[in-house]
């Protein structure tokens, strides 16, 4: 919890080590080329039967606010993302499939088949021309959206997270063996960001496209130079979290990490210095009963939102490190997304999506429709639609009312 005299963020504006040059179009020169090879996995499991014996049943919601419901998955839906052009959604699920479908109508464009395990990571590239789906076994498949054809695939160890570069066809993923991989798609040219042992639990590209941050199950955080593939700064030992890092967010100058220990760290992205450590729960046991599940900086980098497994949502002033508002939820906060500087969207384990006015701390809208827990949420680029993925096997599209 907060102290009576919180520290200040005077050195947040220390830009030492930051690079404002244009985003590189290529990751070449000293790039390490990894030989592509076909995995020997059996194709028999690719088309696994999905019998209905023992299938979970869920109560009907009190109301259904969904403008569109996508029902093609035959098991829990773990991940969803909206294309940057706002036309399509990709979703991945327990049925070992990814689906690309129309945001407005819910009509299926094509399936990402051939996976060997649950599809848990999905995403579109920067210009919406490519879409990636990745499963828990480590198989990554990238498809051309227009041609509906597979253009590249690779198999690595068990996969934890995936992210596209903001301005190039470059894919960054993190794995359970602690490695991170950086690929040019579809050429397959690759750099490896070395493992330090613990599983890589989260990762993000910084806005300049030249740096990345990765986090680990031992509580450590590392900043990387992507061109050189080297660690520039590491938060380890006494400066690290005392339990696994669960989530990350970043701006040009600030990295925010949240952990199962119930704490949040604010790290200067240029120097690697830990600027502040926030206690966001009342339980210092670190057993994950009230872990930090999601963090997010508002577009102006003035407010930090922190969502907890116990249902708390705290809004912190980045400059003073004082908690300005609390937005309680009846169940765990799965994910939060900023929709402008004063509107926050949250997905909750009670199957409800809420929009909050961060100035008052009041919920200004809520949407129901799922029959089980929401596992992921995404915002359309125009801010008019919210897409959710649920344990009930469906995705829902909710619309903001037009003012």
From TrEMBL:
Q: Which SUPFAM superfamilies match?
A: WD40 repeat-like
Q: Which SMART domains is this protein grouped with?
A: WD40
Subcellular location(s) of the protein: Cytoplasm
- What ranges cover the WD repeats? 70-111, 112-153, 207-234, 344-366, 367-403
**What is the recorded name of this protein?**
Angio-associated migratory cell protein
Keyword presence, Repeat: yes
Q: Which positions are tagged coiled coil? A: none
Ranges for the region named Disordered are 1-65
Please give the Pfam families that the UniProt record associates with this protein.
WD40
Q: Where is the composition biased (Basic and acidic residues)?
A: 1-18
Q: Name one GO cellular component term.
A: cytoplasm
Q: Which organism is it from?
A: Ixodes ricinus
- What function does this protein fulfil? Plays a role in angiogenesis and cell migration. In smooth muscle cell migration, may act through the RhoA pathway.
- Ranges of compositional bias, category Acidic residues: 19-54
User: What's the main place this protein lives?
Assistant: cytoplasm
Q: Does the keyword Cytoplasm apply?
A: yes
Keywords attached to this Swiss-Prot or TrEMBL record, sorted alphabetically, are: Cytoplasm, Repeat, WD repeat
